[in-house]
């Protein structure tokens, strides 16, 4: 899948990553980076925007003599992610269809 | 900055010199925050990267490599500032926020090719949005302008013609309703286009034109990204109340006007200046008692001519939406062209010249001490001598008879018309 296409789904990727457990800036960059090749500086604006939209919030945790900021998904963020599920499935269906067609007919000429 | 590095001698959590220099560079690039919100935003950004660097090193990444991957602090700051301006423009759209977001996003964060593609792609909604904002602003501005003109007319019209009050009230309410309603709609369209521009700017930012469009295509499906949060209830309530109020104002205006036939009057006026009426000021005024003849016109042809006899006579040929006021008081004869309430606000629309003819006849044996004529536009002919002649007209020519004037008196001026001394015949 095209890296930029994945990048367009960054908001969803971040929220989905926070579904399982809360994360902090570096850990999120690492986990998202395993799926999408993004620059380290791309994530902060996304986190900030999602926070402002009320889809995630933050809380501090003391870690080794300093405070670490953790991000967690809000009920609204969870709701929005779930409500977009049908659209994501529709997108996957379209992509599957394209892949299927290309695999079946792409090599015939 | 590595708190586990016992050999560094730094307190736990404090950055290394290289990291500190990078963070200082970030602070410098963010500049001096203009507001409390900007300051908090800048502090949050610096804190995020300070924590990021500490966590990366703690996870075993070489600091130099992490710093290299982060890149120039200036670029990081620009990206953050651009994102902040985009968020602002999305949350509370408006021409200035939209322009700032476009400037900051296009300024430094996208590569050149991306910027060009982005500019072209987002230019249409951006310009359309700005045009809507401008249109809305002008319509809002027209409301006090119309009110000012109406108030100016109202005093001189409604007092002598009370029934004109209904027309004025109707026209004013309908005009306010229409202007505010249309301005509001245009402004809302500007907001919508502004949000579309923001989405396009965000989609392409930092990823180049084609890639950004791919991203935008993903967004267009509604998957993978989230629009700005929905409007809160109080704001929606305020907006609905406002819309109902505007509709009520408009409706009241239309109802008031429904029975007055004003629409037909406006229509017939644009097609001709008919119907007209002729005004003879009767009885005529005894010239011996007049020291000053004062004429106030709007877009009139004004003539002051010689006539036989001993009385001053005033003759007016005016359309039915004009009232010719003629009165004498304390030796001053006043002739004034006024609205009579039939065409409220017509002054905003009327650019016509010479729709009114005013002729003041002065006895041949009488030398007028003072003549004062002021008109917005239209020609002025003077065929009588006056010790003190004062004429002001905006656009029309002024003719003075050579029988009485060898040169143009200082008080005679036309802003755009020609002033001449020539024989004055019958009106053409």
Nearest-integer average pLDDT of chain A: 84
The description of the largest β-sheet of chain A is: 3 strands, antiparallel
Oligomer: heterodimer
Please estimate the helix content of chain A.
55-70%
**How many structural domains are formed by the residues of chain A?**
1
Number of helices of chain A: 6
CATH class of chain A: Mainly Alpha
Determine the N-to-C terminus distance of chain B. 96 Å
Number of strands of chain B: 13
CATH architecture verdict of chain A: Orthogonal Bundle
Please work out how many helical segments of chain B DSSP would assign.
Answer: 11
User: Structural class, judged by helices and strands of chain A?
Assistant: alpha+beta
Greatest interface (CB-CB under 8 A), with counts per chain: A-B, 41 and 49 residues
Strand content of chain A: 15-25%
Class from secondary-structure proportions of chain B? alpha/beta
Q: What number is the mean pLDDT of chain B?
A: 77
Shape of chain A: elongated
SSE order of chain A, one letter for each helix or strand: HHEHHEEHH
Coarse morphology of chain B: elongated
Q: How would you write the strand order of the largest sheet of chain A?
A: 1-3-2
Describe the structure.
The complex is a heterodimer of chains A (109) and B (428). Chain A is of the alpha+beta class. Chain A has helices at 3-7, 10-20, 25-33, 43-52, 75-83, 85-105, and strands at 23-24, 56-63, 66-73. Chain A has a single domain (3-82), classed as Orthogonal Bundle (Arc Repressor Mutant, subunit A). Chain A has six helices and three strands; from the N terminus they run ααβααββαα. Among the domains of chain B are: 110-258, no CATH class; 276-421, no CATH class. In chain B, strands 1, 2, 3, 4, 5, 6, 7, 8, 9, 10, 11, 12 and 13 form a 13-stranded mixed beta sheet that branches. In chain B, a hairpin with a 2-residue loop joins β5 and β6 (332-339). Chain B is elongated, with a radius of gyration of 36 Å. Chains A and B meet through α1, α2, α3, α4 and β3 of A and α2, α3, α4 and α8 of B.
């Amino acid at each position: 899948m095209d890296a930029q296409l994945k990048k367009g789904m960054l908001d969803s990727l971040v929220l989905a990553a926070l579904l399982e457990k809360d994360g902090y800036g570096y850990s999120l960059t690492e986990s998202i980076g395993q799926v999408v090749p993004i620059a380290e500086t791309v994530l902060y604006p996304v986190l900030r925007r999602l926070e402002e939209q009320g889809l995630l919030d933050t809380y501090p945790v003391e870690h080794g003599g300093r405070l670490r900021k953790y991000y967690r998904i809000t009920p609204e963020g969870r709701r929005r992610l779930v409500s977009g599920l049908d659209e994501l499935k529709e997108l996957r269906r379209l992509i599957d269809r394209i892949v299927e067609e290309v695999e079946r007919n792409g090599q015939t000429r | 900055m590595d708190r586990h590095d016992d050999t560094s001698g730094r307190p736990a959590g404090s950055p290394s010199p290289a990291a500190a220099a990078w963070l200082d560079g970030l602070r410098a690039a963010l500049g001096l925050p203009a507001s409390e919100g900007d300051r908090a935003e800048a502090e949050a950004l610096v804190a995020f990267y300070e924590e990021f660097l500490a966590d990366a090193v703690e996870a075993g990444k070489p600091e130099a490599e992490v710093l290299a991957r982060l890149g120039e602090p200036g670029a990081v700051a620009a990206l953050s500032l651009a994102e902040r301006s985009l968020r602002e423009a999305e949350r509370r759209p408006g021409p200035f926020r939209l322009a700032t977001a476009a400037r900051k996003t296009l300024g430094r964060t996208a590569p050149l090719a991306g910027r060009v593609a982005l500019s072209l792609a987002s230019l249409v909604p951006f310009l359309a949005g700005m045009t809507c904002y401008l249109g809305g602003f002008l319509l809002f501005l027209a409301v006090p302008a119309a009110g000012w003109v109406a108030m100016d007319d109202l005093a001189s019209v409604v007092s002598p013609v009370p029934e004109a009050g209904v027309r004025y009230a109707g026209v004013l309410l309908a005009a306010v309703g229409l202007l505010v309603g249309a301005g509001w709609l245009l402004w809302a369209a500007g907001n919508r286009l502004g949000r579309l521009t923001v989405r396009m700017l965000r989609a392409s930012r930092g990823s180049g034109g084609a890639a950004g469009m791919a991203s935008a295509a993903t967004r267009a499906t509604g998957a993978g990204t989230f629009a700005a949060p929905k409007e809160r209830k109080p704001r929606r309530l305020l907006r609905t109340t406002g819309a109902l109020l505007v509709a009520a104002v408009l409706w009241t205006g239309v109802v008031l006007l429904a029975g007055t036939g004003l629409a037909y009057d406006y229509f017939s006026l644009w097609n001709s200046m008919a119907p007209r009426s002729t005004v003879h000021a009767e009885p005529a005024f005894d010239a011996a008692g007049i020291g000053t003849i004062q004429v106030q016109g709007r877009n009139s042809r004004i003539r002051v001519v010689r006539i036989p006899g001993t009385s001053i006579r005033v003759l007016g040929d005016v359309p039915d939406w004009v009232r010719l006021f003629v009165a004498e008081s304390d030796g001053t004869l006043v002739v004034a062209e006024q609205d009579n309430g039939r065409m409220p606000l017509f002054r905003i629309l009327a650019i016509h010249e010479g729709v009114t003819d005013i002729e003041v006849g002065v006895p041949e044996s009488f030398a007028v001490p003072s003549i004062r004529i002021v008109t917005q536009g239209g020609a002025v002919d003077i065929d009588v001598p006056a010790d003190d002649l004062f004429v002001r007209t905006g656009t029309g020519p002024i003719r003075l008879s050579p029988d009485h004037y060898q040169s143009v008196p200082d008080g005679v001026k036309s802003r755009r018309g020609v002033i001449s001394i020539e024989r004055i015949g019958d009106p053409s």
